[in-house]
Amino acid sequence: MFRYLMIYLLKTINSNRSPAAIYHILTGKKSSQTIQDLHLFQLHTYYRLLPNLSRQAFDYDVDQMVNEGLMEWLNAKDYRLTDKAWDYLSTYKDTCDEAHNFERPIDHQSKEIFTKRFYLTIQTFTQRVMDDTGFIPLIDDITIQAFVKQYYHLHKHALRDWLEQCYEQLYDVLKTYPDIRRHIYLDRLSTANHNGQSLQQLVDRYHVTEADILLTLALIERTLFIRSQQHQTLLSDLLPADNQPKIYERLMTRSARKTHQLVIKGYKIEDLIQLRQLKRGTIEDHLVEICMLDDHFKLDDYVEEEKIAIIESYLSKRHTQKLAELKRTLPEEMTYLDLRLVFAHYQKRLHQ
Amino acid sequence: MNALETLQHYFNYHAFQTGQRAVIDDLNEGHDVLLTLPTGAGKSICYQVPALMNDGLTLVVTPLLSLMEDQVRHLKAHGIKRVAALNSFNTTTERQHVLKNLKLLKILYISPELLQQDWILKRLKQLSVRFFVVDEAHCISQWGHEFRPDYMKLESVLQSLKHPTLLLVTATLTADVKRDIYQHFSSRQIKEHLHMIDRDNISFIVEKCSSNYEKDRYIVDCLSTYHVPTIIYFSSKKETERVSHYLKEHVPTHRIAYYHGDLENNERMLIQQQFLSGELDVICATSAFGMGVNKKDVRLVMHYHLPTQIESFVQEVGRAGRDHLHSVSISLVTEHDRLITERLIEGEMIEENVLLQLFRLLDQQTHLDLALFSDTHQLNEIHRRYLQNYLENHDIITDNKTINHHKLTDQFKDTWVRTVTERQQFKRKKLFELLLALSDDRCIRRSIYQPFQHDINKDRFGCCSVCGFRLAQFEPIQLQTSIENLTWEDKLNRRIRPYTEV
Ligand SMILES: [Zn+2]
After folding, report:
1. Is the pLDDT of residue B166 over 90?
2. B201 Cα to the center of ligand 1, angstroms
3. pLDDT of residue A141
4. Beta carbons of A142 and B94 less than 8 Å apart
5. Which pairs with CB-CB distance under 8 Å and at least 24 residues apart come from B244-253?
6. Which pLDDT value is given to residue A332?
């Protein structure tokens, strides 16, 4: 399971980065480097897929892959996938497909809130339906608890109806998964008469790694989330209201977000340097980041139209990824910032 | 409502247990109280009932985070909502929420280190604090088995509040500790409520083993005969994992897990809950397990490794048989246990040469960077806090950093070094005391309870292996559990539609 995903991702980043880059993507690190990697390798759908994956668990899987001859270290940072890894990908393509077949990125913050609400609701409703009031809530977050409390009051006279429908929903989702995965998911649930199993217990019981367990849970949680978003179902009530900042804003580094607020108001680069009291280089980095993430970024506020036309026409003829080559070939008045912004903008539209 | 009505109304108990009523009456009349009760005898009722009967806030200082959380959940589950916990693990939102609603609270659990923060203290000073409860009061004493440097400042905190009534609670009060408590709170008139803490339903066995392998085999044999709720204590995290795996393999009928401080909070809680609700039979744990765990029917407590002193041993053993049915403590000892435990003690202590280095630094500098010093000498958090508190209490450093050189006398240095060496010797003495109590020439029960009380209750089911008790005489009700083996459809049904199972 996780093995397949790892090989797939290592293949995608194609030895340009160390495996740690994958770890940062999967856990959703908010660094410029990670955000750039998302775009460069088109891995948005994997961003923060496994927010709770520990570095230790990740490294364990990497070591296992080396031991099994799926990859080799060339030196301390660089690796190479072996032929065995390529075989692995084609062998398991059919059975592990769902692990790499995400259609579009999801709003991971909404997904996390939804999932916590779902788990606490199930625990609360099954306990209450059995007349047990003195249970210990499995989610500590008081904002989640407050929500579930309200939700409970809406449904307290029809708990069985809710649970019957919930059963149907889970049944529909789980039946599409391999047996081991649905067992893992069900063992992790905390309900009346059953406290969820710890990760270590699941690892021991199913003879898989911790990353496998987390991936299994994440995939099923994700499916439930997307279904609830796309169709009006019982669980759609658990989705957080859409009053949060847009997805791209949350992907930005904190500092870039501040700059972004000024960019929206139309400030030019010299103003930004003044207002933010930052170095030109930092502001330029922010602009590139904003350009990649914000669909409404006005490129011509920062690069003259003629320049954009020249650079874009060059890019459309030569599929280069090298800024240095652009700089060498194009007229001298093109600054690095011009090139980087147009390049980022071009890339973004290419993948839309 | 009077005390009994309060108890019945909020907690659904019919009557008070031994000792509770007298403490509550004294507190209601404004007398400061020192209370010892055996673990699990309902000490929290002693302050929760007065807290609910009186106006004002009850502040409960406790170093045990898990206990704090459990208590708050427990009270909330009983419909008592005006309670909260403040500790360093709160998220910012949670903390803000608590501080915003401070005026509405009846009971606030707080960790000693947060109580020292000025901005929190300032908020508390504005409130009327009716009762000031110090849980695990033995932590005040340097001679206590769980000395907490932060406890050294409780007296001054107490002084700054508007005269609350003081309650000191502990389950392990030795003569040394008692002397320190009285010295620390010398300005208060304290009434004693000291109860016998020995447990007459527990029989003690000491089993000599020659190797870890023999210990492993002994446990396998024992568990194969007794399928009962069991805790096995270790001093090493690694060993909890190893033995837990070994037992799973060799006693496949039992549901076994391990527990130690390195596990994620959430994971730890799941294991604890499973054990509490009977979904686990055997737990291999370090001493991190058990604080605030109130499971009535633990039948067997084993010690794979011994703790470093009798107090911990008594506390850990005390988790067995809270339902007053026959329970057994088994200690597995080998010759080299003493060495392992001695090494443990060394890890806990500040060494003399670290102090000497610190003195050199203090002499040379105008400001002290204690964090840097701690890093250089690889001191842990407890050591660092200890140094900081000691320096602050003796006015050696002020405003966190500036060094008062004129206070830094030779006498000060000598006294400190002497304190540290004495404490080290004291720890050794404590260990020796435990080893002696478990050596096989004197009644074990009598030996381990002797530091806390003069007399001892008559055993109800057999005393100890020295007095002739044998494990074969242990006839508990056995568990009939097995490992869940269902199809996924049945599992789903059982999880989501529990009402169809009955
Ligand atoms: Zn005896």
Report:
1. yes
2. 12
3. 76
4. yes
5. B244/B284, B245/A204, B246/B216, B246/B220, B247/B219, B247/B220, B247/B223, B247/B282, B247/B284, B248/A204, B250/B220, B251/B220, B251/B223, B251/B224, B251/B282, B252/B483, B253/B227, B253/B482
6. 83
Cα B137 to averaged position of ligand 1 atoms, centre (Å):
29
Q: Which domains does chain A have, with CATH numbers?
A: 2-99 (1.10.10.10), 108-238 (no CATH), 247-350 (1.10.10)
> B464 C-alpha vs ligand 1 centroid, how far in Å?
4
Contacts of B267 in chain A (CB under 8 A): 198-200
pLDDT over 80 at B39, yes or no = no
Q: Which residues of A touch B494 (CB under 8 A)?
A: 193-194
Euclidean distance between the first and the last CA atom of chain A, given in angstroms as a whole number: 29
CB A300 within 8 A of CB A269: no
Determine whether the interchain pair A134/B77 forms a contact, defined as Cβ–Cβ distance below 8 Å. Answer: yes
d(CA A289, CA A35) in angstroms, rounded, equals: 8
**Reported pTM:** 0.74
ipTM value of the model? Answer: 0.72
Structure tokens at B358: 């610190």
The verdict on a CB contact (< 8 Å) between B499 and A201 is: no
* A→B interface, C-beta within 8 Å: 122, 126, 129-130, 133-138, 140-143, 160, 163-164, 166-167, 170-171, 174, 179, 182-183, 186-187, 189-201, 204
Q: Which helix (H) or strand (E) holds B267?
A: helix B265-276
| B474 CA to centre of ligand 1 in angstroms | 15
CB B395 within 8 A of CB B407: yes
Task: Locate the chain B residue with the closest alpha carbon to A124.
Answer: B496
Give the pLDDT band (50/70/90) at residue B316: very high
Alpha helices in chain A, H assignment, sequence order: 2-13, 20-27, 32-40, 55-67, 83-92, 108-129, 142-155, 159-174, 179-188, 199-206, 210-230, 247-251, 254-264, 269-276, 280-293, 305-317, 323-329, 336-350
With a cut of 60, say whether residue A246 has pLDDT above it. Answer: no
Q: Give the pLDDT band of residue B501 (cuts 50, 70, 90).
A: confident
Q: Which member of A126, A138, A196 has the closest CB to residue B496? A: A126
Q: Residue B232 in contact with residue B302, Cβ under 8 Å? A: yes
pLDDT band (50, 70, 90) for residue A248: low
